[in-house]
Amino acid sequence: MDYQQLIEEVYQEVQEENLKGKVADYIPEIATVDPNQFGIALVDIKGNVFGVGDHQKPFSIQSISKVHTLTMVFNFFNSKLWTRVNVEPSGDPFNSIAQLEYEKGIPRNPFINAGALVITDALCSKFEKPIEQVSAFINELAGETCVMVNNDVKNSEMDHGERNTALAYFLKSFKNFNNPIDQVLEVYFSHCAMEMSCVDLAKSFSFLANDGYSIFADRQVLTESQSRRVNALMLTCGFYDEAGEFAYKVGLPGKSGVGGGVAAVMPHKFSIAVWSPELNEKGNSVKAIRALELLTDKLSFSLF
Amino acid sequence: MDYQQLIEEVYQEVQEENLKGKVADYIPEIATVDPNQFGIALVDIKGNVFGVGDHQKPFSIQSISKVHTLTMVFNFFNSKLWTRVNVEPSGDPFNSIAQLEYEKGIPRNPFINAGALVITDALCSKFEKPIEQVSAFINELAGETCVMVNNDVKNSEMDHGERNTALAYFLKSFKNFNNPIDQVLEVYFSHCAMEMSCVDLAKSFSFLANDGYSIFADRQVLTESQSRRVNALMLTCGFYDEAGEFAYKVGLPGKSGVGGGVAAVMPHKFSIAVWSPELNEKGNSVKAIRALELLTDKLSFSLF
Amino acid sequence: MDYQQLIEEVYQEVQEENLKGKVADYIPEIATVDPNQFGIALVDIKGNVFGVGDHQKPFSIQSISKVHTLTMVFNFFNSKLWTRVNVEPSGDPFNSIAQLEYEKGIPRNPFINAGALVITDALCSKFEKPIEQVSAFINELAGETCVMVNNDVKNSEMDHGERNTALAYFLKSFKNFNNPIDQVLEVYFSHCAMEMSCVDLAKSFSFLANDGYSIFADRQVLTESQSRRVNALMLTCGFYDEAGEFAYKVGLPGKSGVGGGVAAVMPHKFSIAVWSPELNEKGNSVKAIRALELLTDKLSFSLF
Amino acid sequence: MDYQQLIEEVYQEVQEENLKGKVADYIPEIATVDPNQFGIALVDIKGNVFGVGDHQKPFSIQSISKVHTLTMVFNFFNSKLWTRVNVEPSGDPFNSIAQLEYEKGIPRNPFINAGALVITDALCSKFEKPIEQVSAFINELAGETCVMVNNDVKNSEMDHGERNTALAYFLKSFKNFNNPIDQVLEVYFSHCAMEMSCVDLAKSFSFLANDGYSIFADRQVLTESQSRRVNALMLTCGFYDEAGEFAYKVGLPGKSGVGGGVAAVMPHKFSIAVWSPELNEKGNSVKAIRALELLTDKLSFSLF
Known about the structure:
Four copies of one chain form a homotetramer. Chain A has one domain (about 5-300): 3-Layer(aba) Sandwich (Beta-lactamase). By secondary structure, chain A is α+β, with helices and mostly antiparallel strands. Chain A is about 45% helix and about 15% strand. Chains in contact: A-B, A-D, B-C, C-D. The interface between A and D is medium-sized, with 33 and 32 residues. Chains A, B, C, D: Belongs to the glutaminase family. Chains A, B, C, D: One of its GO terms (biological process) is L-glutamine catabolic process.
């Protein structure tokens, strides 16, 4: 398989389709990025890296970082984690607080905001310097120093972070939150404000295509079973209110972020990261989703 | 009408009924009060004071203070206030956050927690030293220095204040909150932690029985129309999820608190405060509710 | 008190204000009534009748009939009724089904649709020919034959009755519905489709102003305590999502219908019915509400 | 691959684990089946059939039939179908009506009850004799006459069908229901009451393992794209509130029913049906789920 040719074809075809969306506008630092940027990076199971377009340009990974923090925490808590957060898809908006009220403080899954806050809280229970350690962990997964926290983005998000703060206090009222809220939120907004290129992001997801073993870190990051769990969660819950649609169109476990990035894996084949800032109305990158759809078509790959 | 004899009869009969409830247990300082305490104070329209039992013993007025803060704020904002908080009863629990999500950050009424937080926020916009000024205002209404903030209660409530904090941040996410949340919450928990005796509480409610004019302050505290509005809100929303039942059994506008107090008014006749710590399952004092029911029976009073 | 002069003044002033609303448009038979019609009838405690405008013209009483059916049923079941339907105001829309799901099939009060269906179901358990008997009962209360079921209206509502039918089946799934659904719905839509004039409607409400005794029927229709319960329910739940507002502005227990009618009582003084088809956005007649507000102002009456 | 040996091993191991659950008790006809029954049938892509245990014994397929009816309807309406029903997982119970209220009558997916009713309604719009035609269609897919509607089960479910009837009327109130409700419900309860053996069920699912082509019917039943859509829906929404868990443990698109059956496919490999009546608390057969988990383990198969 010539992956380089494949992603170049996909890149070209998507560019020709001239798809339009809307850059996320709730943070000035993200609202002002050049909307025409578009990059793809693919890392095969042996660690070979392929890229096209803006694949080396760092962008704000946002919610994609929830996969990295979940991975760190999963190693420590293992299945006990699932007493604090469920593993099922949610029919409510990603930032809904009503669901938490009806389900007594147990978030539906680790990728909706409430669930990701529980994960970051668990992270703060185990790591002394969580922000540095998340960065170090991702650098290790990517095999190089590549992560930078954009403090302007972080600060902007903290300035508009009332809803996440409300979720954190609400979780605490159900005793599902253990650390000082300010500290956890700073860690949360920091990891969401991390910037990486498509290349490094794809490398950092490589272990999920490889039963938990990272070539770049040269170690078993998760057990095979844990790795499957993370992939299952991405497949059923990784795309906000478009998980079912993505499973059908693309069929790969993946996670999107409002910065316009999507990271996904084809187990035992490759990991891939695609980035383009314009989003559809469900909050997922229009070009990234289309690129992944074309790519699986060309590979004649289908889960189904 | 011999009010002294009336409340003594009521007091006696309620004591003989030996009603049982459960002292609020979420704050140590309130959980440990002597549950057998019981007092009634009535202030007629001319300012005569009548009392029986523990009517001079200070207790934690809790949510009853929401009537005082609403009054302070109402004077400044008048009907503009109702763009930020509605005037209708709620079918949800007093501390529900789901209702706020469905109704886009506008609380149903000023007595559920979310609504009271909006009122306290408005208070902080107009008053430089809100805690001192709430105390001074209540003292003025009662015609004497009588209010004390119990800092142990306040601190306990702040330590368990996650749910109210969540409400505040959620309100802020809808831009229905203007002041620093910590500051507003401190004011909120302070006024809820105020202690007053039945006598002083009844005096402080006297203006609501008198079309807004306070004999003790010797001034028009609210316009007649505003005073009616506060009374209408107390009648329809003053007793958590027992407003309809209280309207039927007692038929007086009033407000209860989890400290076991109830303050109510019979317009153009008297104001009254009753206190006994044991609560029914809806969170209202069993003896206070029963006392008011007997009292209106004996007066052959009925709204209906 | 010259009630005739009073209602004429009110009538005149309201007419001059030229208030506008919107006639209910979901049934052709109601949508096409002349929107300018406006009548007031007042019946004092002695049975004297006063009227102005279109006070003798029959109109569709709609939800006002829920007071009559509640009265019939209350007599049979007494307080056992409140195991099937609650007595508290609802923060949800009058036709909400979600509330029923969260509260396990117990409607919030007898005036929201779900609650009224439970009442009509109870009615069908006790009366062999419920439609005839509701008519006969109202005729008795009014002291003359006056009620007519408009079958066109009834049939129209049955044709668009899917939501009420859904509520009935949902109640049945919680075992809070005992009779054949079709039969109960026919009775329900029949009593909603009854037509009466303001005069007869005011007469039929007279017993609620008189501690349960009807002058026209010459008997105790409800006990004093039951009569108070009905009035308390009307005050807290009688005006859809405008109960708090109506309590403040008017302060009388009452019930409105989408036909543009409002019936209310001033206990121990009079009952009153006002009708004008144009509704405000909450579904209550603009002219009727305004007329009652002016009337209580002129009487210097206030609950508060 | 020796599929016969594989399923025999799985059968043996599951039997030894002695798993316990609870037979569905809401219908007498299902509540009284022998709980120890357990069968597995596997049909490979070439049409070879393998079976073990009670694989030839007919059982009530219940919700599994929703896959068959969706398939029939999908062919006619194609993507227009998705204007009436969404394709995303739901966080609410499978029979929730509140979700329908909040989302204006559009069910979350075709497998929750509300969605399946819309599908059956669409079926009734296109087929003159829907029950016969569903039976005929399933027989065609299975390559033999095998389907029988158990009228006792159907009648029992109709007798307790209030909640589904409520859903149907509620859908109609949103104009998302076109045919007479009684007729549609009879079709719905009839297809849920169909009985098939594991062998025939696995054969009837074979086309979903084969890009839409049925060997037994010898025709393209769905396009490849449609077939993927059905599989994607089964993977994300096929197991009530256990879809995420099933995706992780088993990783096959599938559909369960409260009769204790599960039908699933491994695309391009085989279809499989497992049946055992005892259910876990989420409503899925404990032995069937465990069997599928063991089977994919033994095959070293994983989506992830």
